[in-house]
Amino acid sequence: MKIFLDTADVDEIRRASAMGLVDGVTTNPTLVSRTGRAYKEVIKEICDIVDGPISAEVISDDAEGMIAEARDWAKVHKNIAVKVPMTLEGLKAVKTCSAEGISTNVTLVFQPLQGLLAAKAGATFVSPFVGRLDDIGRDGMDMVADLMTMIRNYGYKTEVIVASIRNSIHVSQSALIGADIITIPFKVFNTLVKHPLTDKGIESFKADYEKIPKA
Ligand code: G3P
To answer: Ligand 1: which residue has its CA nearest to atom 8?
Structure first.
């Protein structure tokens, strides 16, 4: 499973990237607004840190506007995946981008059929939002499992990016259902290597080492 970071904070990206575990980055306008910086400037810096797909989102409502934004983003860096909303206009834009060799990430997917249509339109990536479904009392991970089955049933090359991740359980579940990619907030990323018994074991091994006679 590939691991992407779901953040626009370049310090977080540098720190996680130094661990050698980051395969890409996803951003959205909300994440970028928290940085107080211009979207393009942030994306350019991220592209210099991580050599993998970097998602940057369009804001137009119509296909024509989205395509113009996508072409603009594609000029910024070869690794950019243009994030397009899951709407009919978005799917039209995906079709054109796909024909022009522009990588796309269809976002705000909340039911499997939406993701299947995105794959059919030629999306490079599709992003089902797990946490936001859980938040309204639905099982987000069930939705991802069904979407994976549908995409594999028809052999689409579209990769599923499990998004809107809240905790390490979402990460384990994504791996168990064989998701291609998971995009993780830095806060969750930091919890993944941690277990209290690991820390306790290290402490006791260190203490016992001190009891070994030194040659
Ligand atoms: O990047 C999109 C997605 O991961 C958003 O997550 O936490 O705002 O539901 P969240």
So the answer is: 164
Q: Per the structure block, which two tokens stand in for 169?
A: 């359980």
Is residue 164 in contact with ligand 1, taking CB distance under 6 Å? yes
What are the residue numbers of the active site? Answer: 83
Mean predicted confidence (pLDDT) in 31-37: 98
Please check the confidence at residue 215 and state whether its pLDDT lies above 90.
Answer: no
Residue pair 53/82 in contact by the 8 Å Cβ criterion: no
Rounded Cα–Cα distance for residues 24 and 199 (Å)? 29
Do 184 and 166 meet the contact criterion of CB atoms below 8 Å apart? no
- Cα 57 to Cα 52: distance, rounded to the nearest angstrom: 16
CATH of 2-211, one of 3.20.20.70, 3.10.20.30, 3.30.530.20, 3.40.640.10: 3.20.20.70
Q: How far is the CA of 164 from the centre of ligand 1 (A)?
A: 4
Q: What is the pLDDT of residue 56?
A: 98
Atom of ligand 1 nearest to the CA of 55: 1
Q: How far is CA 90 from CA 27, 46, 70, 154, in A?
A: 17, 25, 11, 22
Q: What are the domain boundaries of the chain?
A: 2-211
pLDDT band (50, 70, 90) for residue 158: very high
